[in-house]
Amino acid sequence: MYIKAVFFDAGGTLFRVRESVGFHYSRYAKNFGLSIDGDLLDCRFAEIFSKQPPLVYPRGASLPTMAELVVWEQDWWRTLLEEVFREARPMPFDDFFCEVYRYFSSVTAWQLFSEAISVLDRLKQMGYALAIVSNFDSRLLSICEGLGIAHFFDTIVFSSLAGVAKPEVGIFKIALAKMGRSAAEVLYIGDNPRDDLPAPHEMGMTALLIDREEQHKSHTPRITTLDALFEHIQ
Question: Which has the least CB within 10 A, 80, 163, 197, 219?
Fold first, then answer.
């Protein structure tokens, strides 16, 4: 069956944090009287993030309101930052957290990869349906708007509202249902071998790893820029 839709991961695939998470944590911490190395904070962030529960709102009988979802998301991130800064905290911590959270909510914190717009535009002109499937919170919607890419996508599925996160197949099932596509019609592209490959393969999608830094050369198929995806749909 021919590919009719292309699904993308978001962070690390379409866009990235400017500088690094640790860089910005260090920058804001300094404003609150704490001098701490950004590289150290990057390591702490990666360690703690990997141990956090999935970024998934606990699902009950009904969907949360957006206000309920945002409060829960903020609590999730606050717990993470408390652990990152467990040994030494910027004070007052509430004010520090609010400033950091606000910064990462703004489009200035994020940077599109250089080829993203041209690739999305070409895919749209070729008639492909496009979606995002990402382990992200509700800020993804405004970030995509601010980066000028939201209009390319027929749907944006993010884990906090979906109630399930990658690598679980459930988040991909939600995206397929929203798009009205079968797995065999979809090409999925992501940058994390653990989160972005097993579930799509299990479901019968074509899955590509984007490996911009060439850290996963043993994985095939693999691309190093989004422009190369066209070799896999034509």
Answer: 219
pLDDT of residue 234: 67
Where along the chain do its domains lie? Answer: 5-16+110-232, 19-109
| Overall fold of domain 5-16+110-232 | Rossmann fold (3.40.50)
How far out from the chain centre does Cα 138 lie?
11
d(Cα 198, Cα 171) in Å, to the nearest integer?
Answer: 13
At the topology level of CATH, where does 19-109 sit?
A: DNA polymerase; domain 1 (1.10.150)
Q: Residue 79 has what pLDDT? A: 97
pLDDT tens profile 56-95: 998 776 889 999 999 999 999 999 999 999 999 999 999 9
Q: What's the predicted TM-score (pTM) here?
A: 0.95
